[in-house]
Amino acid sequence: MKYSIETHDLVKIYDNGFKAVDNLNLFIEDKTIGGILGPNGAGKTTTIKMLTCLIQKTSGDAKVAGFDVSTNPDDVRSRIGMVPQQISLYKDLTVRENVELCADFYNVDQRIKDKKIDDLLDLVNISYAQDKYVNQLSGGMQQKTSVVASLIHNPEILFLDEPTVGLDPTTKRVLWDLMLELNDEGKSIILCSHDMYEVDKICDSINIIDSGKVVANNTPQGLKDQLLKTKEETNKNIRSMILKLEEEGTKGNEEKINHLRASLTDENEKVTVMVSNITDEMVEAVRDLEVVTDAKHVGNGRLNIDLKRSETSVNHVITAILSNGGNIASIKTNDPTLEDVFVAITAKQRTEIKNGRN
């Protein structure tokens, strides 16, 4: 398998002794969109700085586009583009002048430079503003200019650090579409963001970094499924402990049992079904199902249902509605969000550090 980013036991210790990155093992497949998440101070920025050859590693190995960041930094730099969170354009130059400056820095062939700039300005739809000074632009237009500047030398890998912070929803979606389009053209995209919806929407894989380590990596859906499985296994273990204490007798164990019961997480699956011709009979049919713990018609054909989680629970609900003549317009399950995953994983990491297991 070919990787755009590959690190083995990567370490960065600053002069003051602080270990910002601690044996980091990070792998992002070539020509995919890889998301990097982590709380503030987790080591994300330091990692990106090492991968983009801005700072030296302390130990370990790191390859970008197949080249070692220490022994072949020029090869790495020529193959990457960077869109930083803080706009790093010259405010007293025009949009086009900024891009021309970057083109000259990367020795873009003068015979094709103007056409490349024109094409990229068209790609992000800011050709009309090419003669405006950067300090006259909105935040979104400045970010688009930064993207053009980062793409002028046709890099294989594009790093984006919080690219949509402070942008309006419309401009955000324009940049999301641009990232997807660039990826379709074969570029690898490395996205650092705190916007969980953004990462969930466009990333093929996600690495969560905390305390300088990769503490979780999977597809967005894989991380959510993993959280559900972890909750189910935890609840199973807690119930087993409760049963054992009850078999010993409740005398002296009541407080422990109550504490364990309080730590059980909700295993019900919440489902919303929109039925265009809903009737009381349909609602009652759903309520009568063994897998249903609660069902409420909240108006406008919306039926909110609490289900005992199983592979067939939703099928039973659908069958009950259809068998009573219902027309189902939509079904939505309330699965864990990426934010739920992020909070759970980082909280677990903090607990393990506190208990001295990391």
From TrEMBL:
GO function terms (MF aspect): ATP binding; ATP hydrolysis activity
GO-annotated biological processes: daunorubicin transport; doxorubicin transport
Source taxon at top rank: Archaea
Keyword hit for Nucleotide-binding: yes
Keywords: ATP-binding, Nucleotide-binding, Transport
Entry annotated with the keyword Transport: yes
Domain (ABC transporter) ranges: 5-236
Pfam family of the protein (one): DrrA1-3_C
Family: Belongs to the ABC transporter superfamily. Drug exporter-1 (DrugE1) (TC 3.A.1.105) family.
PANTHER family for the chain: ABC TRANSPORTER ATP-BINDING PROTEIN (PTHR42711), ABC TRANSPORTER, ATP-BINDING PROTEIN (PTHR42711:SF13)
Record-given protein name: Daunorubicin ABC transporter ATP-binding protein
Organism: Methanosphaera stadtmanae
UniProt lineage: Archaea, Methanobacteriati, Methanobacteriota, Methanomada group, Methanobacteria
